[in-house]
Amino acid sequence: MRNKLARSRSNRKVAGVLGGLSHTIGISATILRVIFIIALFPTGFFPLVIVYALLTFVLPNEEDQIVE
């Protein structure tokens, strides 16, 4: 069964988006957080902040997903 993207309930600093993404793709959440922070500067903050905010509202929590 493939991992579906969902916000993490246990591996979160703000909303769990990067923790859930790290679980789905198999990379450490710390590495994703560092990449996210570094990417904020060249993009001018707003594009990535808007994407993160949208994913916060769009992605379900881990326990909200239906187990098949």
Automatic annotation (TrEMBL):
Bilayer-crossing residues are 31-55
Mind listing the UniProt keywords for this protein, alphabetically? Cell membrane, Membrane, Transmembrane, Transmembrane helix
Keyword Transmembrane tagged: yes
InterPro entries according to UniProt:
Phageshock_PspC_N, PspC
Q: Where in the cell is it found?
A: Cell membrane
Q: Which residues form the Phage shock protein PspC N-terminal domain?
A: 4-62
Q: Which domain of life is it from?
A: Bacteria
Q: How does it sit in the membrane?
A: Single-pass membrane protein
Where is it predominantly found?
A: membrane
Listed name of the protein? Phage shock protein PspC (Stress-responsive transcriptional regulator)
Its source organism is Rossellomorea pakistanensis
